[in-house]
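Z., the sequence and structure:
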Amino acid sequence: MGDAMVGAWDANASNQEAQEAATDGLPTPQAKWLRQSEISLEVSLLSGRSCRLSMACNATVMDVLRKSREALNVDVSRLYWLQQPLQRSHKLCDVGLGLSSDEAQLTAVAADVQIVSSLEALGTGDAWPLSCCNEALDGSFLAIRTDGQVLAWGGLACSESFRKELTDFCEIRATVGAFAVLRPDGSLCTWGKAGYGADRSKVKTLLEADVCAIYATSKAFAALKHDGSVVTWGGPRFENFGGDSSRVQEQLLEVKEIKATHSAFAALKADGSVVCWGNSCEGGDCSRVAEQLKDVRQLCAAQRAFCALRADGSTVSWGVVTEGGGSYMVQDQLHSVVELSASSSAFSALRADGAVVSWGVLGGRCEATGVVKVVGNDCAFAGLRQNGSVVTWGDAKGGGDSIAISAELVDIKEIRPFFQCFVALRKDHSAILWGRGKPPQIFRDVVSVAVTKFGVAALNCDGSVQGYDDESEWRGVSFDTVEDQLRDQVLDLHVTAGAFAAVKLNGQVITWGGHWYGGDNRSVMDMLDPEGTEDQQVWNQLL
């Protein structure tokens, strides 16, 4: 996950207050209806140059990037708001912009390179990919240079022939064995293992234009086109991981959004109905609840089950019954629901009164009230309460028990899930890590903390990185080997399941961790030749 610029703290403080005032303490799902139809933005480089933009609420971050590039005459690669990076494919309204009529302050970074990991490309906010990637034996990083060329290393490094195809992108998605890249012209490029979605030959002509979004199960892709139709491919022979949608193809019209389990897709249509395909046991068959899937406004996916939130606040679930596909035991409590969340094998429903209802394997029970946001990892949930405290439930060793650090879990602004742990970021720039069956840890003066199966790293407010390796029997690059290169000017930290990548202001990329997880980038080092940006001197002055 990306992290913030030190120079953005003061500029964003008033915007945070404005957002809190606009929502008036309402849970996030309720507050999002208060947005403006037009959003005023001020986009500023660290050098001080800025531009003012007026964007539609449903515009994407990519739209803002393009407008910013034209106005500033700089190849802006990343935008930050409230100390967080904005993902290119997200709509402005969906990330919270527009909650206040005040002008939003965005920080633009013109770094020489942007990084995307296979975990980030598969995860897209769901919990089950954390488990899926952790069980995989490799992982990869992609580096996007300012000239648009995309480089890859790790377990899914692409060949020279594919590198020539990879010029500029709007969106990147991954299965556990392949990548799919959406270009600005609406065409797609794929590479990796054929049975995991890299082979798109049967639908290649349908993917040459007009694609607007990509989705993935563990082994197959689905492309949503501008006309609301869907194209699918991938998966091993004789197994349907969602790559074969022929059974429901005639129904895949006017699709708005798609969600994925480990091996099935569910499409939300404009009329509020839902269409499913893929592994029938893991959510690909919703015939049992088809009559109830009307007026749906949100879909949520666990590893082997789906849950739908209807406009009246009720829910409908299907898939593996014991892993969230059956909510019979708590059905009478599932009313006035405003948002759904998932772990790998359970769901949690946040109600309008701040109560939380959970079901599934290791779903546990949340006794607290006043919850405004819930996140799930592989086996537990964490809820952020209105007063800034945190409540947890589920598997105790995986983060479901936070009693020992409850005194530290105050003034929390965000909770981030990792495989079997959580990281809570406090407003005073400290962070608390708990779970993994290990003692909790507290980090001071940090922007963020990232965790892999082999170690922990924290990006400090001064641009340096602190970290350690906590597994002795693995082959890779240790943190000690690269520590001297991480003492200043680090912008971002990214992770696969077993490696880290740190992006520095001059475009240099420092990696460590397991070789097959992307911890060694020597194969592309010569092509990651940093040349610095106009923000380089300003960064030094800020520090």
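The chain is about 10% helix and 35% strand. The longest strand covers residues 38-45.

Let me know what you think.
H.
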